[in-house]
Amino acid sequence: MKQWEVVIGIETHAQLSTVSKIFSGASTAFGAAPNTQACAVDLALPGVLPVLNKKAVECAIRFGLAIGAEVAQKSIFARKNYFYPDLPKGYQISQMDLPVVVGGNITLQVGSGDKIYEKVVRLTRAHLEEDAGKSLHEDFHGKSGIDLNRAGTPLLEIVSEPDMRSSDEAVAYAKSLHALVRWIGICDGNMQEGSFRCDANVSVRPKGQAEFGTRREIKNLNSFRFLKEAIDFEVQWQINEISEGRKIQQATVLFDPDAGICVGSMGRKGRNSAAPAMLRAGATRRAARNAAWVRANSTTRSVSAAFDSSNSRSVCRIIAPLAHIAPSTRGTPISATTANCQATPNSAIPIASGNRTAASIGTIR
Fold it and tell me: What are phi and psi of 240, to 5 degrees?
């Protein structure tokens, strides 16, 4: 380890503390019955238009001021294309070229006692975007369930520079950022509910080398302990791979806390993963099944919709090839249009129905 230098950058998704979603008037409350807080805008029904939530922008500005960043006078949203069943539009509305917050830094304390030291981590940017829905792979007997309550929830994605050099520094950074967003009141920081989650980009290089090594991204870490364990495993794995003469391939992986290892997932570049032998040796059945499910479902899925003018009712069906979407229970309806929206009898997923007016879209309550 002494001849290696670890390089870490972290992307953090902080769910903003708004009552309604970023582009619709649907509720963001946690714990509702599946698919009862997904309105016509969230479902991407034909003809709906997004209206930006002013409170979400105010939260982003507050964060930018808190870290000493530049707050953009003009920022632009873009489409980020994904082909996942829990993303009804087929793309995510995010910011790319002109984010709302640019630059800034966070000062943190690392270590304890007489070994404590101060570290400044630079931030690249923070941008607004919408969250996706949730795919549920357990307890469906070989099928996958889709819950779209989370779709459209406002997120602030906070991207750091690769300034951290150990898992301890990464954890100290995450804790400092967590405390900051809670203190300024833009995020409740509830990691168990997914309100604050981190993606760690990790690479190693020989000490003294200026060029960065090939990074791998560990997705969706929702506890400080998992963050440290995942980075420590990934660092040792990369060192072992390089020492044995193999090249690191850029990939996206998931951390399996039960097995204590990173397993291959939705690799965007390079091969999918971290050593099949590790899967055989101890990765849990759930992690392996999730990885296979994502690979299998990288095909196109579609959303079809029809409008019944006789009773002013929108009817929609979500179709996901290779992923049989299991039924779930209907609950309290929420909609963002004057037309009702409900599931067809043979639809695989129940869609909420209701009568909330379009005037509520994008309002701040």
Answer: -60, -45
| pLDDT digits 0-9 by tens, 312-361 | 333 333 333 323 333 333 333 333 332 333 333 333 333 333 333 233 33
What average pLDDT does the segment 300-313 reach? Answer: 31
Residue 218: its H or E element = strand 216-221
Distance CA 105, CA 347 (A): 48
DSSP letters spanning 140-197: STT-BEEE-TTTT-EEEEEEE-S-B-SHHHHHHHHHHHHHHHHHTTS----TTTTSEE
Angle at which helices 167-183 and 224-243 pack, to 10 degrees? 150
* pTM as predicted: 0.74
Pairwise CA distance, residues 43 & 80, whole Å: 16
List beta partners, residue 198. Answer: 12, 221
Beta strands in 36-116 (DSSP E): 70-71, 77-81, 91-95, 101-102, 105-110
**pLDDT tens digits along 16-36:** 999 999 999 999 999 999 999
At residue 7 the predicted structure's pLDDT band, cuts being 50, 70 and 90, is very high
Asked whether 263 and 254 are in contact (CB, 8 A), the reply is yes
Cβ pair 362, 20 in contact under 8 A: yes
Say which DSSP state 325 is in.
B
Residues facing 109 on adjacent strands: 118
* Region for 272 from its dihedrals, namely left if φ exceeds 0, alpha if ψ lies in -120 to 50, beta otherwise: alpha
Please, what is the Cα angle at 328 between 325 and 332, to 5 degrees?
Answer: 135
- Position 264 scores a pLDDT of 82
